[in-house]
Amino acid sequence: MSNTATLSIIDDDESVRIALDGLLRSHGYRVKTYASALDFLSSCELETTACLISDIQMPGMTGIQMYDRLSTLGIRIPIIFITGYPGVPPRVSADVPEPVAFFPKPFDCAELIACIESVLARSA
Protein backbone atom coordinates (compact mmCIF):
# COMPACT_ATOMS: atom_id res chain seq x y z
CA MET A 1 0.00 0.00 0.00
CA SER A 2 1.41 3.41 -0.95
CA ASN A 3 0.12 6.51 0.80
CA THR A 4 1.22 10.01 -0.01
CA ALA A 5 -0.17 11.64 3.13
CA THR A 6 2.21 13.14 5.65
CA LEU A 7 1.43 12.22 9.25
CA SER A 8 3.01 14.08 12.15
CA ILE A 9 3.66 12.36 15.47
CA ILE A 10 4.10 14.45 18.60
CA ASP A 11 5.16 12.66 21.78
CA ASP A 12 7.78 13.41 24.41
CA ASP A 13 8.51 9.67 24.73
CA GLU A 14 11.12 8.75 22.12
CA SER A 15 10.17 5.05 22.19
CA VAL A 16 6.58 5.93 21.23
CA ARG A 17 7.79 8.17 18.39
CA ILE A 18 10.08 5.41 17.07
CA ALA A 19 7.37 2.73 17.28
CA LEU A 20 4.73 4.89 15.57
CA ASP A 21 7.21 6.02 12.93
CA GLY A 22 7.97 2.39 12.03
CA LEU A 23 4.32 1.35 12.07
CA LEU A 24 3.15 4.19 9.86
CA ARG A 25 6.06 3.95 7.42
CA SER A 26 5.34 0.22 7.06
CA HIS A 27 1.89 1.26 5.82
CA GLY A 28 3.44 3.61 3.26
CA TYR A 29 2.91 6.95 5.00
CA ARG A 30 5.39 9.80 5.10
CA VAL A 31 6.07 10.51 8.76
CA LYS A 32 7.51 13.45 10.69
CA THR A 33 8.18 13.13 14.42
CA TYR A 34 8.43 15.82 17.09
CA ALA A 35 9.42 15.62 20.75
CA SER A 36 7.10 18.48 21.75
CA ALA A 37 4.09 20.50 20.66
CA LEU A 38 6.32 23.57 20.40
CA ASP A 39 8.67 21.71 18.03
CA PHE A 40 5.72 20.91 15.76
CA LEU A 41 4.30 24.45 15.90
CA SER A 42 7.67 25.90 14.85
CA SER A 43 8.11 23.39 12.00
CA CYS A 44 7.38 23.75 8.31
CA GLU A 45 4.82 20.92 8.43
CA LEU A 46 1.74 22.84 9.61
CA GLU A 47 0.33 23.13 6.10
CA THR A 48 1.40 19.71 4.82
CA THR A 49 0.35 17.47 7.71
CA ALA A 50 -2.75 15.46 6.76
CA CYS A 51 -3.27 14.04 10.26
CA LEU A 52 -1.69 14.60 13.69
CA ILE A 53 -1.11 11.86 16.23
CA SER A 54 -0.30 13.55 19.51
CA ASP A 55 0.25 12.70 23.13
CA ILE A 56 -1.82 14.78 25.54
CA GLN A 57 0.47 15.18 28.57
CA MET A 58 3.78 16.71 27.51
CA PRO A 59 6.14 19.22 29.13
CA GLY A 60 5.90 22.82 27.96
CA MET A 61 2.61 22.60 26.10
CA THR A 62 0.00 19.86 26.26
CA GLY A 63 -1.54 18.31 23.19
CA ILE A 64 -4.83 20.05 24.03
CA GLN A 65 -3.10 23.45 24.26
CA MET A 66 -1.42 22.79 20.91
CA TYR A 67 -4.77 21.89 19.36
CA ASP A 68 -6.23 25.16 20.67
CA ARG A 69 -3.24 27.09 19.26
CA LEU A 70 -3.67 25.50 15.83
CA SER A 71 -7.32 26.52 15.87
CA THR A 72 -6.39 30.09 16.82
CA LEU A 73 -4.01 30.16 13.85
CA GLY A 74 -6.85 28.98 11.59
CA ILE A 75 -5.15 25.64 10.93
CA ARG A 76 -7.54 22.70 10.86
CA ILE A 77 -5.71 19.38 11.01
CA PRO A 78 -7.50 16.20 12.08
CA ILE A 79 -5.96 15.02 15.34
CA ILE A 80 -5.84 11.67 17.06
CA PHE A 81 -4.80 11.87 20.70
CA ILE A 82 -2.90 9.07 22.41
CA THR A 83 -2.56 9.09 26.17
CA GLY A 84 -1.03 7.15 28.99
CA TYR A 85 -3.80 8.49 31.22
CA PRO A 86 -7.00 6.83 29.94
CA GLY A 87 -10.37 7.69 31.36
CA VAL A 88 -12.62 10.58 30.52
CA PRO A 89 -11.16 12.40 27.49
CA PRO A 90 -10.11 15.96 28.34
CA ARG A 91 -12.31 18.79 27.20
CA VAL A 92 -11.20 20.99 24.36
CA SER A 93 -12.29 24.58 23.83
CA ALA A 94 -15.83 25.02 22.57
CA ASP A 95 -14.65 26.92 19.49
CA VAL A 96 -12.48 24.13 18.04
CA PRO A 97 -13.64 20.96 16.29
CA GLU A 98 -13.61 17.79 18.35
CA PRO A 99 -10.55 15.56 18.02
CA VAL A 100 -11.06 12.53 15.82
CA ALA A 101 -10.27 9.96 18.51
CA PHE A 102 -8.58 9.21 21.82
CA PHE A 103 -6.45 6.06 22.15
CA PRO A 104 -5.07 4.86 25.49
CA LYS A 105 -1.46 3.68 25.55
CA PRO A 106 -0.79 0.95 24.74
CA PHE A 107 -3.12 1.09 21.76
CA ASP A 108 -4.18 -1.46 19.18
CA CYS A 109 -2.11 -0.79 16.05
CA ALA A 110 -4.79 -2.08 13.66
CA GLU A 111 -7.40 0.21 15.24
CA LEU A 112 -5.08 3.21 14.95
CA ILE A 113 -4.36 2.48 11.27
CA ALA A 114 -8.10 2.06 10.58
CA CYS A 115 -8.78 5.39 12.28
CA ILE A 116 -6.08 7.15 10.23
CA GLU A 117 -7.40 5.64 6.99
CA SER A 118 -10.92 6.81 7.89
CA VAL A 119 -9.67 10.34 8.63
CA LEU A 120 -7.77 10.55 5.35
CA ALA A 121 -10.72 9.18 3.35
CA ARG A 122 -13.00 11.88 4.82
CA SER A 123 -10.43 14.58 4.07
CA ALA A 124 -9.98 13.54 0.43
UniProtKB/TrEMBL annotation:
The modification 4-aspartylphosphate is found at residue 55. InterPro entries: Bact_response_regulator (IPR050595), CheY-like_superfamily (IPR011006), Sig_transdc_resp-reg_receiver (IPR001789). Coiled coil: none annotated. Keywords: Phosphoprotein. The keyword Hydrolase does not apply. It holds the Pfam family Response_reg. GO terms for biological process: phosphorelay signal transduction system. Residues 6-120 form the Response regulatory domain. PANTHER family: CHEMOTAXIS TWO-COMPONENT RESPONSE REGULATOR, STRESS RESPONSE REGULATOR PROTEIN 1. This is Response regulator. It comes from Pseudomonas thivervalensis. The lineage of its organism: Bacteria, Pseudomonadati, Pseudomonadota, Gammaproteobacteria, Pseudomonadales.
